[in-house]
Amino acid sequence: LKKSNKPVHFVNRLDQDTSGLMVVAKLPEYHELLAESLDEGEKYYRALLRGSWEKPEKELSWSWPITDKAEGRQNPKGVSAERLEAQTNVQVLRSNKYFTEVYLELLTGRQHQIRKHAAIAKHAIVGDSRYGDKKYNDNIAKLYGTKRMHLHAEKLVFTFENKDYAYESKYSLNSFFVA
Length: 179
Known about the structure:
This protein is of the alpha+beta class. Strands 2, 4, 5, 6, 7, 8 and 9 form a seven-stranded mixed sheet that branches. It has a two-stranded antiparallel ribbon with strand order 1-3. Helix content is 16%, strand content 28%. The protein has three helices and nine strands.
């Protein structure tokens, strides 16, 4: 790879331990326009949650108000006076007695929104060091040989300059669901 001296203009951001798609503007004048296009577009994530999904509903909306700050496992909603509307659509894809795989659509963009909502739902994202349980995450890392947070920005759909774009980066969680 050739090293470039050109600045990088990241349009969207991901939490440090989240993998997946990011949009980068080649020219700084496109940064704000692309950011607006992404805000109006669709953002989809795949995650591995702790525990079995016992509820009958497989499609639901997490709409707990949360702060727009990094909180912790003890109070993922944050200080009540600072909470803002937050909505995440959730589709349960599969579940066993240890894990649940979900596909999520991010409808608002609060800091750590999916991670907080999963913790509030009592199904923290596997490997989440802030909102999950350290001992549990360490055990899973040893058992499965992977020490990471299993949250992945899988699909971005947006319109920019009257052209539709859809990018996808699949993330397989099959190793957690082998018989």
